[in-house]
Amino acid sequence: MEIKGIHHVSAITKYAQDNYDFYTEVMGLRLVKKTVNQDDPSMYHLFYADAEGNPGTDFTFFEIPMLGNTYEGTNSISTTSLRVPSDEALSFWQKRLEEDELSVEPIITRFGRQMLFFRDPEDQRLALVSDENNQGVAPGVRQETDDIPYEYAIQGLGPVYFTVPALEPTEQILVDILGFEKIDEEENIHRFSAGEGGTGAEIHVIEDSSLPRERPGKGSVHHAAFRVHDKDELEKWVQRIQEAGLVNSGLVDRYYFQSLYFREPNHILIELATDGPGFDTDEPMDSLGESLALPPFLEERREDIENNLKPLHSKK
């Protein structure tokens, strides 16, 4: 039983079309699955990833049109980072994002790596992290676009940031239950690593008791998911989480992977998810995300579901 790294991060958007435009056109990610929230099929669930939809590269969004603003604070997944191949790539992205008139901070060095923090149009807190000096979990498959060269393209998810009022309860779950290792810390940021390590397998926990508790809205993150090998291993994780006394979902079949959800003591929602079967289970690899995909248990409701969703239109 070993956490292999980051599987996906699921966030919230108010506007699916604007979200689609930004993450495909500006960020150059591939929409690998256009589906719905399986617990509420009235809303989109969009999956952006690398060129092949590999685990460890999925940044997903639930559309909730009635959302208000996010009031940032603790007990939250406070930043999602994305991996790029090199320090030079960060300079490319800094210029590109500034030209798009986004809120972009200067490039900094953290834990020996260069990083660029910025916000998307809904104030989603994001960062790009350079893999130039990185070792560990392999990157995803970069996708070249007309205006994003292959050597600068995003290649997966980087460290996930938690912000908590007290480190100890979260650290106990990460280390004693999930098997992460605390590597080091800088100021009030504590770095934890799993599996092969590296940018694709880290959680950075910010401890800050001065902040209020976050009130989520558009631009906030719903949960972070971490990779386990297969269903058999996930069933063992279910037992471990239950024995730890954590309220949890039990094993949930999401069709493209199996999942387990639970909240750690600082109220952050964590998911463990299997690497497979994968997004090409019901669509050919070369046409992922082009049509609305539904798991079998929702297929008989397709007509009603499609009638309640606004079609997404590509600018290309």
Description of the molecule:
- InterPro entries: Extradiol_RC_dioxygenase, Glyas_Bleomycin-R_OHBP_Dase, Glyas_Fos-R_dOase_dom, VOC_core.
- This is Glyoxalase family protein.
- This protein has 316 residues and is an alpha+beta fold.
- It has a single domain, classed as Roll (2,3-Dihydroxybiphenyl 1,2-Dioxygenase, domain 1), CATH 3.10.180.
- It is built from 5 helices and 16 strands.
- A hairpin with a 2-residue loop joins strand 2 and strand 3 (40-49).
- The longest helix has 13 residues, at 87-99.
- The chain is globular, with a radius of gyration of 18 Å.
- The mean pLDDT is 97.
Distance between the termini: 44 Å
Which sheet architecture does the biggest sheet show? 8 strands, mixed
Structural class: alpha+beta
- Specify the CATH class: Alpha Beta
Strand content: 25-35%
* Contiguous runs where pLDDT drops below 50 for at least 5 residues: none
Number of alpha- plus pi-helical segments: 5
The global form is: globular
What's the mean pLDDT score? 97
Quote the CATH topology. 2,3-Dihydroxybiphenyl 1,2-Dioxygenase, domain 1
Q: How is this structure best summarized?
A:
This protein is of the alpha+beta class and 316 residues long. 17% of the residues lie in helices and 34% in strands.
Provide the descriptors you would attach to this structure in a database record.
2,3-Dihydroxybiphenyl 1,2-Dioxygenase, domain 1; 8-stranded mixed β-sheet; globular; 16 strands; 5 helices; 316 residues; 17% helix; alpha+beta
